[in-house]
Amino acid sequence: MIDSTAVFVMAAAATLFAGISKGGFGSGAAFASSAFLALVMPPAQALGLMLPLLLLIDVGALKSFWRRWSQREASVMILGAVPGVALGAALFAVANDDVLRLLIGGVAIGFVIWRLWPMGVARRPPLWAGGLSGLVTGFTSFVSHAGGPPAAIYLLARGLDKTTYQATTVLVFWAINLTKAVPYAFLGVFTREGLMADLWLAPFALIGTWLGVRAHHMVPERLFFALTYVMLTITGAKLIWDALS
């Protein structure tokens, strides 16, 4: 798992990044932490290592955004996410490391393309469309902790203000991550070594969340995500190359 100083530094940086992203920005870049870790450890181990930390970050962020979410959008997305998580578990049970690398890398590249692609003004989607968004969000979140892009597409189109949007994503992913924990345990994704490593990494998760919540009102998203897109592109390309070669 974490068998060297270099890997620990990588894991600590990824955890800090996830906390900042989930605590302050709702565009889904937190999943980059799993992509970064998949470069230095098997993808399943990276996913198992990150989930308890993501749950810890969710709890920290929930306190800061308590009751500032949109209950309607959150509820319909969470209901739709349950079958999405089940589909993700079914695929995960039969996928090998290279398939997971390809999925994580593909989602990383797809996320960058989605964020940079010129988008016109679309009409507001109906509330029920959140169920479909939740389905896709639950699936991609299960296989790569990458539910942010499909969730963001729907929630942004619903016209929520910045803080309501952020609070809604925090609530939705807290519920989805809790749902993922049970099948992850049955699939053997969690390990004793990973949970012990999580104890060492927990402070970085809390510090990242604290920084992210404060950055929510202070730091322009454009600068933060410009660097994120570069890192995601390089990381995603590397994972796809490793999977195909």
In short:
With 245 residues, the chain is an all-alpha fold. 78% of the residues lie in helices and 0% in strands. The model has no long low-confidence stretch (mean pLDDT 83).
Characterization of this structure:
With 245 residues, the protein is mainly α. The protein has one domain (5-244). The chain is 78% helix and 0% strand. The chain is built from ten helices and no strands. It has helices at residues 5-24, 32-37, 43-64, 71-94, 97-116, 129-144, 148-157, 162-186, 192-215, 221-244. Helix 4 packs parallel to helix 8 (162-186) and helix 5 packs antiparallel against helix 10 (221-244). The two termini are 23 Å apart. The model has no long low-confidence stretch (mean pLDDT 83).
Give the SSE order as H and E letters. HHHHHHHHHH
What does the main sheet amount to?
Answer: none
Structural classification:
mainly alpha
Poorly predicted ranges: none
List keywords for this structure.
245 residues; mainly alpha; globular
